[in-house]
């Protein structure tokens, strides 16, 4: 018994020193802020729990139960996958919880005439919602850290564990249906016309580390000639820096219209490592950090895939706008709740929160699609819903004042 109690007693000894700085900073806050934060934090924790449980049930739990029953997924693996998916859903829950918590807390204070008492003492609405905005700023920072540092790792690990357990070959460098293009100078053109244009167009059925399966390559690098190479597989030769195409066929179309067909068992080709890099990019931008997304954008630009590069630029901006939703919802929820004579029950607060969240995310998805299609710049596609919502929150604040 003494063996097990020893570490606990050490923690108990250090505990006052761990929390002492936080208690000291907390006591420095004005009494009004401490009181309002005390009213905000319990409903915030409740809302984070509620939204996370609901979204996990719909997004993960039902699928894992189906995998256990139909595919024989071990229960302990399902628990691991479930725990690793929690950060991804926490990130989605933080903004929604911020809206519900501020709406419920300020609505309850308003219905109890406590906000009316504060107004009679000369406390403005802006001052009353200041603790909510400070809390929203803190949750915004936590959301960004989770979304950029924790969620990509946990999502990739959960997918790796799940696929490995189901017996599917998977690695961190695997991609399917990869299209790669390369631009360069075309041989045979006059010097003044030697500008960069499309020289290679490449398709791979699957890329797994240094191996390509089912590839097709179109070569336009020589003026007037079109060469098509089809091979069952290709292996990356690290020492020579070339690809060894295995078991394939080469078709050459000359400027005069003649065609030459050659079958080969092995054929070396200098294509570079571009296909490997493109194949290693995760399909979902949520599985990338900001720095990884920036690298992916550069790879797409180098390969000439402008649409994917534009989509990646939109996703990079959304890495910042997703956390900003906490401030947007904190402003809207607190100003709606702080309106005089506002009474909202917990169920009504949940309903209003879901309605406002639906409007915001429909707006976000619509503008995001416009950004990916090129109708809007990535910056405006990602930030316009935030600016519009902040303007709406400012209008509500003016009305509540």
What's a concise summary of this model?
Helices cover 64% and strands 17% of the residues. The chain has 401 residues and is α+β, with helices and mostly antiparallel strands. The chain folds into 2 domains: 26-172 and 283-400, no CATH class; 186-269, no CATH class.
**Structural class, judged by helices and strands?**
alpha+beta
Please report the total strand number as a whole number.
6
Supply the number of structural domains.
2
Sheet with most strands: 6 strands, antiparallel
**Which strand order spans the largest sheet, edge to edge or round the barrel?**
1-2-3-4-5-6
Tell me the span between the first and last alpha carbons. Answer: 61 Å
Strand content: 15-25%
Radius of gyration: 29 Å
Parts with pLDDT < 50 across at least 5 consecutive residues: 1-5, 169-173
Rounded average pLDDT: 81
Count of discrete alpha- or pi-helical segments spanning 4 or more residues: 10
Please explain how this structure is put together.
The chain is α+β, with helices and mostly antiparallel strands and 401 residues long. It folds into 2 domains: 26-172 and 283-400, no CATH class; 186-269, no CATH class. Helix content is 64%, strand content 17%. It contains 10 helices and 6 strands. It has a 6-stranded antiparallel sheet with strand order 1-2-3-4-5-6. The longest helix is centred in the N-terminal third of the chain and has 41 residues, at 31-71. It is elongated. The chain starts with a helix and ends with a helix. The relative contact order is 0.11.
